[in-house]
Amino acid sequence: MINSREDIICLINADEWMMDILKAAKSLRLPDWWVCAGFVRSKIWDTLHGFTVRTPLPDVDVIYFDPSNKNEDAEKQFELQLKQIIPDIPWSVKNEARMHLVNNIPPYLSSVDAISKFPETATALGLKLDDQDNVILTAPCGIDDVLKMIIRPTPYFSECMDRAEIYEKRIVQKNLKGKWNKVTVIHAILS
Questions:
Q1: What is the DSSP pairing of strand 34-36 with strand 91-95?
Q2: Other CB atoms closer than 10 Å to residue 21's CB: what's the count?
Q3: Which H or E run includes 151?
Q4: Is 147 left (phi over 0), alpha (psi -120 to 50) or beta?
Q5: What global pTM score does this model have?
Q6: What is the pLDDT of residues 145-183, one digit of tens each?
């Protein structure tokens, strides 16, 4: 059973595939880097559902924060470097120092600030390795929802109707309840 941050970290440490991905991302030496979102949530929910086969991921999100180089071409170069390390992973690399421009919102302060503004609390998770390859977990919205298999909007996505509508559309598009049937969906209040 998974009941704590330590349990999540043990789960990741025991997963050679995930550790290889974390080591590949670490090798880029990006500032304030994390592998985040569905990469973390899916492992937890697969385990809680007793799945023996990993739920396929549409991508593996690697984020970093570098205000000194907001050129999207740099992100594409990092994706190519990762593909050379592990070719069969659908890498997606984003510099959160520029993503506020894409999302038309105020600038993020860091990668963890960006993670806190992901649409769902259960997806607002990130992993990285320290200098000794110990797994570090960030969960700016907490881990309760991911452990209780609850999908709800992060505070950032519940405080404004436009973002709440985006959250609702994602719930339909991602079909998380269809993939993990024990999940409970909490809808945003649209008024």
A1: unpaired
A2: 22
A3: strand 150-151
A4: alpha
A5: 0.95
A6: 999 999 999 999 888 888 888 899 999 999 999 999 999
